[in-house]
Amino acid sequence: MKSVRFVVLALLAGLAGGALAAQSSKTDFPNRPLRYIVPFPPGGATDITARIVATALSDALGKQVIIDNRSGAAGTLGAEIAARATPDGYTIFSCNIASLAVSPALYKKLGYDPDADFAPIGLIGSNPNLLAVHPSMPATSVAQFIAYAKSHPGKINYGSAGVGTSPQLSMELFRMNAGIDIVHVPYKGGGALLVALLSGEVQAVFGTVLLLHAPGRAGKVRLLGVTSTTRHPDLPDVPTIAESGMPGFEVISWQGLCTPAAAPESALARLRAALATVLASPDARKQLADQGMQPMPLMGENFAAFIRSERAKWAKLVKDVGIEPQ
Q1: For residue 27, what pLDDT is reported?
Q2: C-alpha distance from residue 117 to each of 19, 82, 96, 312 (Å)
Q3: pTM > 0.90: yes or no
Q4: Which of 92, 81, 99, 95 is nearest to 303 (CA)?
Q5: Which DSSP string do the residues of 259-294 spell out, in sequence order?
Q6: Can you name the CATH fold of 30-126+253-321?
Q7: How many CA atoms lie within 13 A of 234 on its CB side?
Q8: What pLDDT was estimated at residue 2?
Q9: Which of 17, 44, 88, 180 is the most exposed place for a label (fewest CB within 10 A)?
Q10: Class of domain 128-244
């Protein structure tokens, strides 16, 4: 009887231990490092913003958050990798305007469902794009750039961080409104795009404030206009595109955090609380602002509703511009 009692007690102890371990694994999230997938190469606006957030999240969560750059196909490759990751909360994704709003309008088939495959954590922030030209370009204003492009059809190369990115569609919208003929040259990310502009390989770009602010201030590129409806606080001398002859012109880039769908609610709650802490931190806010990113703390379903509205907006824009989905 003693041996039977010992076996029963051992089984009960094992079950209790297993239950406690399972409960602990749910409540002690995270108990190991997290992977932060960034769908663009190092050095661009998305990557730099993600590294600021990753450092602050590491402090807020008490575990290291490791950046994993998975660039390609205008952010859709990284999105697909993130969507297929184990939904345990340990993989977070730099979901952004390109992968969740623009690409669904540009591509008939994606390797992920922008609605069903992701659980939104929160919106980090947004920034407008800047129209910049190489100093050799004989244009110091939006009007002069348009006039030069009209007198030299097909002779101006414009660069972008990839097909389907916000800067590329900014230029396509601009091109359509201005009635100009310029040639698109896509690059693999903002870093490569900046090198091409500085070297004169391309003569014009739309790029983020983060990418173009410093070279613009240094006189290495010429800043002609900003895509927000009001002037950027760090660039008060740069007029908006809207006030430069295109009323209503507005494009902003945004970046948030998502995780694969079906992640545990306990993990999602912890991640949202940590991101809210980051975005409330004066130090993190200053670092983001220094990079041209204006915090926009929308969490959970509010962020999901924002994504849906952005997707509808860009679907209309792609149709209006006349881009056929591939």
Answers
A1: 57
A2: 29, 9, 14, 18
A3: no
A4: 95
A5: EETT--HHHHHHHHHHHHHHHH-HHHHHHHHHTT-E
A6: D-Maltodextrin-Binding Protein; domain 2 (3.40.190)
A7: 20
A8: 43
A9: 17
A10: alpha beta
